[in-house]
Amino acid sequence: MPVGDLIRFVVGPDGNLVPDTDARAPGRGVWILATEAAVAEAALRNVFARSLKQKVQVPRELAQITRTRLEQRLSGALGLARKAGQLQTGAARVKSEIAGGAVIALLTATDAARDGRRKMVGTLKASGLEGLVPHFDILSAPQLGLALGQQNVIHAALTRGAAANSALKRALRLARYIAQPDEPDDK
What we know:
By secondary structure, this protein is an alpha+beta fold. The protein has helices spanning 36-45, 47-52, 62-83, 91-100, 114-126, 141-148, 162-178, and strands at residues 6-11, 17-20, 29-33, 87-89, 103-108, 135-136, 155-159.
């Protein structure tokens, strides 16, 4: 599998298993499919001790710890994109960026009103960008606000640039991690 579809885990100095979301920690690591379900199953099956060939302490909430780390990495990248001028917030500014065609990703708070979400998707459709510009619904308004140093952030748009591209990669990784597997059809 491509490394982008996997997440690395390493043993910390205290003997506890920790997610290495950037795959930069020294030492031996274990690669697991980067989904919440796969991490939870690996923790239950004790695959980490077998793969690392040593006894490790695996936190029961490893899947949630991993999700939190991925959210923190995305929040940091969004903050850098904002400082670089590659992220706009607010419905009016976001709609303007969409109309201008400069948007590479749209973020909507998970707790956004249904009507506001519908209007933003409608703007994407009207501009012909639906399906071309990813629309993320993975962080709450307080999380977005904390990441951007603002209050009440419901809509945000990433525009072209290196910092925005980095944030987009982290958003894709988090979205892939928390995605629910498709239910098989009962036909």
